[in-house]
Amino acid sequence: MGHVEWVEFARVPSMPASGEIVHAVETWEEPAGGGAVVARQLALLAGRCELFTGLGEDELGRESARRLAALGIDVHARWDGSTRRAFTHVDARGERTITVLGDKLLPQGPLPLDGYDLVFFVAGDVAALRSARRARFLAGTVRELATLKAGRVPLDLLVASANDPGEAYDGSLEVRHTALTDGNRGGSFDGERWEAVPAVISDAYGAGDSFAAALAFGLARGDDSTAALQLAARAGAAVIGGRGPYEAQLGSEL
Question: How far is it, in rounded angstroms, from Cα 79 to Cα 65?
Fold first, then answer.
């Protein structure tokens, strides 16, 4: 469950300094954003995934739905407004820098989520979050901390960041497991360190969301924390070896 945005990517030698013009060596575009990336990773691992999202009532929204369906995602969209867009620079080190244009279009509840094995809450309103709690396993991202606080539902997994102020966790939620990511240094899970899988970085876009999706998948199917973290670390390492979030995501291990 989460947002989708239409992303234009440009690979550049380096990020432009103030007033500088840089020439892209490669460009591409596709629907992405946290909701889409998590859904595609779960679809690859589980064989199927449904995405509850919001899409604009415009051609970019319709094209987003078509492309996401082609990636094996069953899309349930609330159609409203204009599609959110983003522009992403990818530099020679594979680091991505994102500029977002417009507001998130969110799924709104209540939603028919009774009996789901796993729901990953990336974005949505409070009613959608409370619907998600009817799943057997509920994961969430700290990016939506305000909504998680307002919803007051317990989480089985919360994914946050050890070094990004925008994804810091203040300990204010009822959470069973907490994962703090720390880039190529790995991170911590319930206070215990885990190590990242070494990888050659082509494009870092989608690494964190792919890691989070795989971790939630492993825990939801009953893996112990060690096995789930190993799966998640491989997923994070895999995606950064390709172009964009989908080219190299980790496939099914079932």
Answer: 11
Q: What is the structure's pLDDT at 254?
A: 45
- What is the C-alpha separation between 108 and 124, in angstroms, rounded? 6
Q: Phi/psi zone of residue 209: left (φ > 0), alpha (ψ -120 to 50 degrees), beta? A: alpha
> Which segments of the chain are extended strands (E)?
5-11, 26-32, 49-55, 73-79, 85-90, 96-101, 118-121, 137-141, 155-161, 175-181, 187-189, 192-194
Q: What are phi and psi of 148, to 5 degrees?
A: -60, -40
pTM of the predicted structure, to 2 decimals = 0.95
pLDDT tier at 253 (50, 70, 90 boundaries)?
Answer: low
Give the start-to-end residue ranges of the domains of the chain: 5-239
pLDDT tens, position by position, 43-96: 999 999 999 999 999 999 999 999 999 999 999 999 999 999 999 999 999 999
Burial of residue 96, with CB atoms counted within 10 A of its CB: 0-12 exposed, 13-18 middle, 19 or more buried? buried
CA–CA gap between residue 164 and residue 94 (Å, rounded): 18
The total number of residues shown for the chain amounts to 254
Residue 219 CA to residue 226 CA, distance in Å, equals: 10
Which amino acid would we find at residue 33?
Answer: G
Give CATH superfamily name and number for 5-239. Ribokinase (3.40.1190.20)
Cα–Cα distance, 203 to 181 (Å, whole number): 18
The DSSP output letter for 72 is: T
